[in-house]
Predict the 3D structure of the following.
Amino acid sequence: MQQDIERILISRERIALRVHELAEQIMADHSGSTGEITLVPILTGAIVFCADLMRQLSLRMRIGLLTVSSYPGASLRTQGSNLLSQQLGDLRGRHVLLIDDILDSGGTLKLVVPVLQSMAPASVKTCVLVRKDRAVAREVHVDYLGFEIPDEFIVGYGLDYDNYYRNLPDIVTLRKSALEPR
């Protein structure tokens, strides 16, 4: 896999620092409430980010799960978001933190936030690891944002290409040869 990497865009050290900062912001924002939240990572891309973030949160929490498909197979551009499954439990009156790996078209958040809001939570906030520098992405409200990045295809730290590279600890770009059909 290392031979497929073109360059490191965000190092594991920068990611760890930013995850810690996001956790501090989230805890400060929830200090006046019940001190309890429900984390809802969007699978599969946000699982690594969510795992690191939740270990930094000193709050009582539950976890709900959503599976959304935006980049099926070897797609390099979003194909539109489709809600595939949900395991959320009762969200009535709860503070919900929706966690996603990447914001590029806004389709996933536009699809999922209304679904969560329809379940009568006390609040729904969004936390996104990276947002691409695209006009359509900047139009979508995000409560907690890790990084702004150029409009490039990236993998690592949960982000994938054809379900590979999620286990890379850094966020990287791939060589063109890695993006060719195998």
